[in-house]
Every structure is written in structure tokens, then in C-alpha cells.
Amino acid sequence: MRLQMSFMSRILGVIAALFLLGTAAHAGPLDNKDGFWSEWSEATFARAATEKKFVIVSLQSWWCPWCHVMNRDTWANEEVRATLKDHFIPVHVDQDSRPDVSQRYDRWGWPATIIFGPDGTEIVKLRGFYSPQFLVPILKETIKDPSPVDYGTLGGAERERTLANGLSDAQRTEILGFLDKAYDRANGGWSKSKLVDGPTLGWFLDRAKAGDKEAETRLRRTLTAMIAAIDKDTGGISQVMLKPDWSLPSREFPMFAQQAGISAYARAAVMFGDAAYRDAADRIYGFLKTRLAAPGGGFYASMGMAEGEPGVDKRQYARETGQAIQGLAAYYDSTGARDALTLARAAADWAMRERGLSGGGFRHAERDAAGPYLADNVEMAAALLALHRSTGGRKWLTAAGAAADFIERTFIDPRTGGFLASASPDAPHLPKPIKQREDNVTATRFFTLLAFYTGEKKYREIAEAGMGYLASPPILDAYGFLPDVLLAEEELRNEPVHVTIVGPKDDPRSAALYAGALHYPLTYKRTEWWDKREGRLANQDVDYPDFPDGPAAFACTRTFCSLPVTDPAAIPAQIDRLQRAMSR
């Protein structure tokens, strides 16, 4: 990637290491009583064009400590405000509340500062905290020379829609090589700053379950060290550790980190029989239940405990509620904790009631400025499918299918097969519509599994088109660390573990068998409960025999099934035998 080396470019080389280490800030979330900040809107950009002013946007997050420090030390600074006064319109965007804006700049971290020309052209993008001594020269240079900084091109050109079920051998080898190099052999984890990343943990859990001893060693070392990220008082897991040796938690608790942590520890506790992992999952569950669960159902967005001390962000978004449901369902599958499942069901009912849209979709908040957004819909769709898996309840599968159809109608780019981040992406002051990588992975994985649960060929084709986009230059050429793409490929190329319990849902023996099937420590599984009184399964691709001795479990592939199992404790061994047969 080639960059234009100018005075501006050299200034932009200043990075977060130049933070001012002042006293702790105690300001709460943004205070705009003086009217300093304008809103992100068409009207603001129209005003900028009329007044021939730049728009300077500060993208912040409730839980982000350096956002609060920058508000206190930089945006309130007299010299900064004097420089801004005649030439800039300052705009504040809460990135959690506006996925359509934040996902354009998530590579720049929070706070991110973007300067636009009066016509909406991006001129400067700044990553992280900037003190007045570094921001003022940038402002003055922008006024003097508003030429856009050349940041190069990430990835390559988008290609036409294509169906794919995987990567090339060379592409896969390159991604695996990057993962290997990123592993911190001295401390465990990947990279110097230890992010709690669900796809990375999931990929290595899968490898360990498949018998990869090196993957197991790396994973267990990481999970054991990562326990230090769990707050001793609240049980929340910090999204990142700021030192390589896991000694400095960020004390930022967004929902995606809670989902990643509880899911990984709950599954690892079953796989390895490690009480410390079960305790870690229990503590994160306690945090979700006591700190982030809202009284009327649904979940609050996040919590922050570092500089700024904002506490719990009590806004409720469909995206974060969907993430919480998925984490709770994974915890229930591993532990059998009924109160976790009750909490997950209540959250799903709340989301469908309070955030549901006609046609099966979801909005982000009570009102969306530019939504609906893919993130809310795909996280809730995955949550509904997870609840179907965990309960056997058909209403959840029906709701997941309705959400899938809404996503198909609303977010798929027919030209590339990728998924657009927003249903209203064409605001005049924004660049072309974006496709955010993580949400494209989540959508591809969701449609892959939904195709197996429903037998609908169109969902399989949507997943293959999604994989075609993930295997294209905008993803593979722009990113190196891609365990999530590896997961999407692995699932698309293989059948999920498939276990069906045949028996009445009011029979305790059926319930015990179903719990045994859920307990099997793989995320990519199709677990079904066939009570014949409810009619045929959605995808009746197996002709299950009648078993005269009562409820029974069957582990199946497309071509054959195991013998009936009536002892829940025997289910894992039966699945293991089936897995070995499938891998031959």
C-alpha cells in the first residue's frame, strides 16, 4: 500500500503511544450543554456546504476511556476550539448507536477523528487519542491545504457474484501462516494486545476437538491466561489486555467480548474438564445476569470502568441482545443452567416485541436514523437459531427463517453476493455502500447452518455467494488475521454434527437425551427434538425408525445413522464414532 508522503502524512504518523498521561478523567458520557457538537445528519453536511466549512467527526464509544480523556483534554481545550471556530463544524457520533457510520471506520479504533470537506470528501482520518499539541497542527494544515490524504487502497476491486465453498490451498495456507506468526509464544494469545476474540477461540477449540495437540496447547495456555481479563468484582471480561503478559485489563466491557468469553469458557469446560474454565464461564454469566440484563427483557449495550467511569450503558440494541442470547445459549448447552435459558428466551421475546420489524427483521434502537442495519438482523437471526438448537422449540426456527428472508431482501448486494452494512447506505456525504467483514462472516455462517436445519436450497446458495465474497480481494487482500473466514469455510465444506432426539417433549427421558446432545462441545451442530405429535421436522432428511423402548437419540449423516441411544452419557461416544467415520 503506497501512501502520499506529505506534511500531513508525517503528522498522521503520530500514534496512540503519544498519549498524555494526565490524571484520571471522571466526566460521564458526552455533555453537550454548550452546543459545541452537531449531529451527524444530512442537514449538518448541507450547512457545511453552504458555509464552506469542514466537518470534523469524533467517533466515540461509551466504554472507551480515551474518548472521555479526549473530550476533557482536547475537545474542551481553548486553542482547539479557537482553531475550529471559523472553519469546522464538530460532529459527535456514538459509534454503538450508529453502525452505519462506525463500521466504515472501525479500523481506526475509538476515538476516531475524521475530517470531511464541505462536499463530504474524506480528507483526514486519525486513529486514537490526539492531544491539542498534535491536533491543532493538523487542523491548521487542513485549512491551508485541504487535499485528501492518500491512505492507499485496502484490498482489491470487488468481483462479480460467485458461488464458492472454500478458499484456495494457497489462500488457506497464507491465513494459517499469519495465525501461527501472530501467536505469542512467550505469553499465549495472539498479538501483543490480547483481544478477546470469539472466532479465534472458536477456531482453536474446533482444532483441539479434532485432535490437534498443538492447537490445544496454545488454546489452553491462552484461556488460562485470559482469566486475568475477568474483573474480580463484576465478573465482566475486558475486551482487551493492554500488556502482552495479561497484566493490564482495559476495563472495557462491550457485549461482543462477553459473548466470546462465556461461549469459549463454557465449551472448554466440557472439552477439558477444567473447573477453572467453568468458574470463568459462571462469572461472566453472573455479569450478564446482574449488570447487563435489563428488567423488562433484553440487554444493555456495555459497561465501562476505566477513565470516565461511565458505568453501564443502558441503551438497548437488537445487536447486543442477540449477542447476549447466543452467549447464554452456549452456556446453557454446556451447563444445563435453566435460569440462563430463561433469560435468553425473555431477551428474544423482548427483541421481537420491542425491536421487531414487519417482515421478520429488526431495528437497532427505538428509532433508527439510517437503518435497519445488517448487524442487528444477523446477530438476532443467529440468536433465534441458537435458541431453536437449545430448546427444540419450533417457533424459534420459524423466526430465524423470517429474519433470514428479511436479510435476503434487504442486505444482499446482487452484484457481489456480499452483505451490505445498512439498508440506507447511499447518503450523499458518504462513500459507496460498505460490506463489513465480521458481519459478512456471521451472515455466511448463519445461512450455512440454517440450510441444514430447514433443507432450503436458497439458504445454501446465499451462504455460497457469501463465501465467494469472503474469498475475494476486499477481504483476503485487506486483512491478514482471518480465523473467522476459516470457520466459515470449514462449516460450509462440512456437515454439522447432527443429533436428533425422537420422543415426546413432556417425557423426562427425552429431555435428558436432548441435554446430553446439547452438551457435546461443538458449536457447529444440528440438534433437533422430534416430538411426532408436532408433525414432521422442517428438514425431514432422515427416516428415523420407531424405537419401542421409549425415547432415543440418533446421530446421523446424510447417508446413515447410528444405532438408537437411550443413555445420555453414551451420546458423546456415538457422535465421536460418527465424526471419525465422516473424516475417513
Produce a short descriptive summary.
The protein is built from 21 helices and twelve strands. It has helices at 7-11, 42-51, 65-75, 78-85, 99-102, 132-144, 169-182, 198-209, 213-226, 255-272, 275-292, 318-335, 338-354, 374-391, 394-410, 437-454, 457-470, 473-476, 483-493, 508-518, 571-583; strands at residues 54-60, 88-94, 112-116, 122-127, 194-195, 240-241, 252-254, 302-304, 311-313, 497-502, 525-530, 552-556.
Which labels suit this protein?
584 residues; alpha+beta; 4 domains; Glycosyltransferase; Glutaredoxin; single chain; 21 helices; 4-stranded mixed β-sheet
How would you explain this protein's 3D organization?
It is a single chain. The chain has helices spanning 7-11, 42-51, 65-75, 78-85, 99-102, 132-144, 169-182, 198-209, 213-226, 255-272, 275-292, 318-335, 338-354, 374-391, 394-410, 437-454, 457-470, 473-476, 483-493, 508-518, 571-583, and strands at residues 54-60, 88-94, 112-116, 122-127, 194-195, 240-241, 252-254, 302-304, 311-313, 497-502, 525-530, 552-556. Helix 4 runs parallel beside helix 6, helix 13 packs antiparallel against helix 14 and helix 16 (437-454) runs antiparallel to helix 17. It is built from 21 helices and 12 strands.
